[in-house]
Amino acid sequence: MRNYLLLTPGPLSTAETIREAMLLDWCTWDKDYNEGIVTPIRRKLLELAKVNDTEYTTILLQGSGTYSVEAAIGATVKADDKLLIISNGAYGERMSTIADYYNLNHIIIPLQETEPIRPEIVREALDSHINVTHFAMVHCETTTGILNPLQEISEVLKEYSVTFILDAMSSFGGIPIDMKAYGIDFLISSANKCIQGVPGFGFIIASKEKLQECQGIARSLSLDIYDQWETMEKGKGKWRFTSPTHVVRAFYQALHELEQEGGVEARYERYRENNRILIEGMRALGFTSLLPESIQSPVITSFLYPSEEFSFQDFYDKLKQKGFVIYPGKISQAETFRIGNIGDVYPEDIKRLLRAIRETLD
Question: pTM, whole model, 2 decimals?
Answer without folding.
Answer: 0.97
